[in-house]
UniProtKB/TrEMBL annotation:
Chain spans, region Disordered: 1-24
Pfam families reported for this sequence: HCS_D2, HMGL-like, LeuA_dimer
Residue stretches making up the Pyruvate carboxyltransferase domain: 26-288
Example GO BP: L-leucine biosynthetic process
Biased composition (Polar residues): 8-21
Domain of life: Bacteria
Name this polypeptide is given: 2-isopropylmalate synthase
Keyword Methyltransferase annotated: no
Amino-acid biosynthesis among keywords: yes
GO molecular function: 2-isopropylmalate synthase activity
Amino acid sequence: MQAVIQLDSKQQPVQRNSNTKSPRHIEIMDTTLRDGEQTSGVSFSASEKLTIAQLLLTEVKVDRIEIASARVSEGEFKAVKKITEWASANGHLDRIEVLTFVDGDTSVNWMLQAGAKVMNLLTKGSLNHLTHQLKKTPEQHFEDIAKVIALATSKGLQCNVYLEDWSNGMRNSKEYVLQFIDFLQTQPIKRVLLPDTLGVLIPSEVYQYILELTSAYPNLHFDFHAHNDYDLGTANVLEAVKAGAHGLHLTINGMGERAGNAPLASAIAVLNDYVKEVKTSVVEKSLYSVSKLVETFSGFRISANKPIVGENVFTQTAGIHADGDKKNKLYFNDLMPERFGRERKYALGKTSGKANIENNLQQLGIQLSGEDLKKVTQRIIELGDRKEAVTQADLPYIISDVLDSDTIREKVHVENYVLTHSKNLRPSVTLKISIEGESFEEHAQGDGQYDAFMNALKKVYTQKGLELPTLTDYEVRIPPGGKSDALCETIITWSFSGREFKTRGLDSDQTVSAIQATQKMLNLI
Ligand SMILES: CC(=O)SCCNC(=O)CCNC(=O)[C@H](O)C(C)(C)COP(=O)(O)OP(=O)(O)OC[C@H]1O[C@@H](n2cnc3c(N)ncnc32)[C@H](O)[C@@H]1OP(=O)(O)O
């Protein structure tokens, strides 16, 4: 017997969990302004930090932000002060955090002067780091930490504690880590922050270690902090949440030291789609604009294929995909661009099929006959073959060029040319052209390459006893938003035998597009 498989005519996002319990809130702490700023070569100004902080708290709606390390510099101090002043006036002060050190009263005083209220105290989460960097015993370290926490608490500060290198601590000195957490249970702290400082963990280990701690210490709040050294940052935060972590540390665009941290946008999308029993307060629609803002402020460029926020991630290039989408959204997944304030695009180039081009035409409100659509498709494929980037904005120009050429019978054909442009020498051209099947070759110089081309052409026409029109206007345009590799349209106005007419050429090279326009003119006179 044959199985009958039914498909929804419009595929809906998959409901992966029918759990009816109200979802568990995962606290999102964004550390773009602290760990993200540890990206090599990145430094935010105080005003930039304030703008990003405001956006994160009020538009993106992360729960908390970490904005600096204490003691770093005078500039950092001013930035923290600026943010805490704004946060204090707007009721956000308890959402602002600063990384501090086990250094007696130094970091505490820095925090107090900067007006910050929540400290993320950096301690040693592995015996290896404790022994070799601080050169202390666990007992000495716990004593120092207890003193800082007592002082901070007495001054009205709230404490969270980072166990730096915790992941290696779990692998190689678990007894120390557990002893440390036992000690933390006796302290007036709010959260235990578990960093995979060197990004060494794989997802199954994250799950195992976090589960061990959330099971053994159900009264403690654990944040997980991933690094992306093996490109596992997002996978690791997903496992941490599944294992019961209460909070995550993320950064915009995955900025951060070395390979960076787990990226905010990817982490939020995967949690929303795959862990239905949890929720965050982050607004998906704001993720793209905050990514762009941080990219601009930091100068740290993200790749076009960066999930959720990269330029290309909602662009279909293959003709087959565009065709499937047109028929029944066959190549959509749950990551609908509209969720993130973005739109689906269909790229134009050599892999474009008709459906792809039709999609673009539809978006521009242009309709073409089947025959014209074929010609336009052919032209786009030719341009793509020459590695030319074709954008939606180029389409009207391409259409007008293709349909224009089509109505002209070709009696004159520019067969070959060599254009030269050298320093301190006049541009020159060697031109081979056929007129009604007869070939001519000429060489000429000019004030520019196109001028040289026209001079060679004049020589041929004079030799043939023919007259050329006068060029009365020459206009060059690039489609709106064009880049350096964009197409270039040249429109030339000619005057001949008392009438005026225009011809148009289109190419990524300006001189070539002018030559195309000229060839059209030669076939019209
Ligand atoms: C989780 C993370 O990403 S950790 C990132 C922490 N943030 C930073 O490092 C911010 C940038 N750092 C800085 O600006 C500086 O390193 C400062 C201001 C913190 C300290 O500067 P300096 O006094 O010049 O010390 P330097 O950077 O050379 O060395 C670090 C010192 O801190 C000590 N240290 C390391 N970890 C800690 C800690 N958790 N608490 C206290 N001291 C620590 C080191 O043992 C070393 O001390 P030593 O000089 O007595 O040997």
